[in-house]
């Protein structure tokens, strides 16, 4: 359905239409806004990836902490 949607000729046609609608004076402003939006999207997706990775590794760290606490309580019980 969307095969070949972003071919160079299509992108050129879109650029011409945008140029006609907004004019050459607004194009740099639109480009900056698009760039900022893309940057925010990348940062947000990278943050989501980091959070997901943290959630995956978090149970492992939690399990290790529980095991260490159990070992510490066992050693404390044997000393008394």
State the main characteristics.
80 residues, mainly alpha, rod-shaped
Topology:
Layout: H1 8-22, H2 27-79
Subunit structure: Forms a complex with TatC.
Family: Belongs to the TatA/E family.
Protein name: Sec-independent protein translocase protein TatA
Number of helices: 2
Hey, roughly how much beta strand do the residues contain? under 5%
| Number of DSSP E strands | 0
Structural class from helices and strands?
mainly alpha
Distance between the termini: 74 Å
> Helix content range of the residues, please?
over 70%
Shape: rod-shaped
The gyration radius over C-alpha positions equals 27 Å
Largest sheet: number of strands, sense, barrel closure: none
Low-confidence parts: none
Helix/strand order: HH
What's the mean pLDDT score? 79
Main location: membrane
Membrane topology: Single-pass membrane protein
Keywords: Cell membrane, Membrane, Protein transport, Translocation, Transmembrane, Transmembrane helix, Transport
InterPro entries: TatA/B/E, TatA/E
């Amino acid at each position: 359905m969307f095969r070949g949607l972003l071919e160079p000729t299509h992108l050129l046609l879109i650029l011409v239409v945008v140029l006609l609608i907004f004019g050459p004076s607004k194009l740099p402003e639109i480009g900056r806004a698009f760039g900022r939006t893309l940057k925010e999207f990348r940062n947000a997706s990278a943050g989501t990836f980091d959070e997901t990775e943290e959630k995956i590794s978090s149970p492992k760290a939690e399990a290790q902490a529980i095991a260490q606490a159990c070992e510490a309580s066992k050693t404390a019980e044997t000393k008394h």
